[in-house]
């Protein structure tokens, strides 16, 4: 196992640990380090990840598919999550959760909007450009480029305006 | 508003202006900030081609009045911008709103943070990731005119 690119102090620790003979190989050292990290995470209350099937082997049950896709989401493997959901739903088409997962994670679909929008988004944009600094750090509510209200929090703003869908409520960077 | 292939097939169906500014007060790198509709509700969103899914601001999520039964089961911990964020995955309708031309609707994978995430969220707007959100859209940017062109790469029935 190559352990290139480590910070100098960590590299020195690895060299010393291997030289001491406590760890037969770099693999054993890395495994021990990961076990210590896992224990540390568990001590902090982070749940242990569900057991993942061996790479390349398909999950063996609907629950395995759901666990595999949850693990994939947690580790940032979004393509694998979609793949597991679609495979699982194809293999177990009557399983409600897998079918829902496949629907949620499926590639986007694109359609023509049935009606043009009616909000004046150009006017909203113009207002935001003109007043961004004056309301920096605040939530503002706009309708068709007209200022409705501003507040330090979303909840405070929502209490002041009738939040119909055509009202843009956004927070301006401080 | 015309962007077309040599065959005459239109590349884009709609075009909108954008704001070119940092997404949050803690950042200095400008981003493309668009006004979009999520389930019909207006919101500001950052084009985040390095990201995934449509990520809703927790406050916008509150306006959507979603029920957990519509979501993929359970709260998911998802790695977003290097941090595990807890929320649920839904299928939501995102509409790209055109100043000129036609709006385009997408059924996307949407990550909706749990309400508890709101206190850590700061001023990050909604995010339009590539995977799971913009991946079936053609888009192009004219930085001189600050225009964002968009259209379907293929239209679904």
Helix-residue proportion of chain A? 40-55%
Q: Care to count the β-strands of chain A?
A: 4
Share of residues in strands of chain B: over 45%
Helix content of chain B: under 10%
Sequence of secondary-structure elements of chain B:
EEEEEHEEEEHEEE
Q: Could you give the distance between the termini of chain B?
A: 25 Å
- Number of helices, counting only DSSP H or I runs of 4 residues or more of chain B: 2
Query: What is the rounded Rg of chain A?
Result: 26 Å
Strand content of the residues of chain A, in percent? Answer: 5-15%
Structural class of chain A: mainly alpha
Order of strands, main sheet of chain B, comes to 3-4-10-5-9-7
Concise description?
By secondary structure, chain A is mainly alpha-helical. Chain A has helices at residues 8-20, 26-43, 62-74, 78-91, 96-105, 121-131, 154-158, and strands spanning 109-112, 139-143, 146-151, 168-171. With 157 residues, chain B is mostly beta strands.
Question: What structural keywords apply?
Answer:
heterodimer, A: 174 residues, mainly alpha, three-stranded antiparallel beta sheet, 7 helices, 48% helix, flat, B: 157 residues, mainly beta, six-stranded mixed barrel, four-stranded antiparallel beta sheet, 7% helix, globular
Question: Could you please describe the fold and organization of this structure?
Answer:
The complex is a heterodimer of chains A (174) and B (157). Chain A is mostly helical. Chain A has 7 helices and 4 strands, in the order αααααβαββαβ. Chain A has a 3-stranded antiparallel β-sheet with strand order 3-2-4. In chain A, strand 2 and strand 3 (146-151) form a beta hairpin. Chain B has helices spanning 58-64, 118-121, and strands at 14-17, 19-22, 30-38, 41-52, 54-55, 76-80, 83-96, 100-101, 104-113, 126-131, 137-142, 147-152. In chain B, strand 2 and strand 3 form a beta hairpin. Chain B contains 2 helices and 12 strands. Chain B has 157 residues and is mainly beta. Chain B is globular. The two termini of chain B are 25 Å apart. Chains A and B meet through helix 3, helix 4, helix 5, strand 1 and helix 6 of A and strand 2, strand 4, helix 1, strand 6 and strand 7 of B.
């Amino acid at each position: 196992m190559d352990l290139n690119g480590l910070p100098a102090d960590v590299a020195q620790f690895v060299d010393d640990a291997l030289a001491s003979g406590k760890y037969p190989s770099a693999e054993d050292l890395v495994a021990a380090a990961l076990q210590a990290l896992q224990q540390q995470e568990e001590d902090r209350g982070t749940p242990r990840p569900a057991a993942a099937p061996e790479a390349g082997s398909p999950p063996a049950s609907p629950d395995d598919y759901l666990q595999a896709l949850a693990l994939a989401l947690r580790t940032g493997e979004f393509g694998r999550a979609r793949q597991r959901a679609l495979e699982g739903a194809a293999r177990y088409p009557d399983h409600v959760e897998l079918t829902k997962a496949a629907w949620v994670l499926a590639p986007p679909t694109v359609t023509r909007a049935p009606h043009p929008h009616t909000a004046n988004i150009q006017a909203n944009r113009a207002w935001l450009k003109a007043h961004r600094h004056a309301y920096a750090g605040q939530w503002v509510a706009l309708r068709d480029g007209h200022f409705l209200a501003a507040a330090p929090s979303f909840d405070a703003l929502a209490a002041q305006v009738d939040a119909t869908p055509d009202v843009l409520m956004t927070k301006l960077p401080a | 508003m015309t962007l077309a292939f040599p065959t005459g097939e239109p590349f884009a169906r709609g075009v909108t202006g954008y704001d070119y500014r940092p997404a949050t007060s803690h950042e200095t790198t400008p981003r493309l900030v668009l006004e979009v509709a999520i389930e019909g509700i207006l919101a500001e969103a950052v084009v985040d081609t390095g990201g995934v899914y449509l990520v809703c601001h927790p406050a916008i999520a509150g306006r959507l009045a979603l029920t957990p039964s519509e979501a993929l089961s359970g709260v998911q911990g998802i790695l977003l911008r290097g941090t595990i964020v807890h929320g649920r995955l839904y299928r939501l309708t995102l509409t790209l709103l055109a100043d000129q031309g036609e709006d385009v609707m997408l059924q996307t994978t949407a990550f909706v943070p749990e309400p508890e995430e709101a206190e850590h969220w700061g001023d990050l707007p909604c995010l339009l990731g590539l995977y799971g959100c913009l991946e079936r859209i053609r888009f192009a940017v004219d930085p001189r005119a600050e225009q964002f062109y968009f259209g379907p790469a293929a239209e679904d029935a």
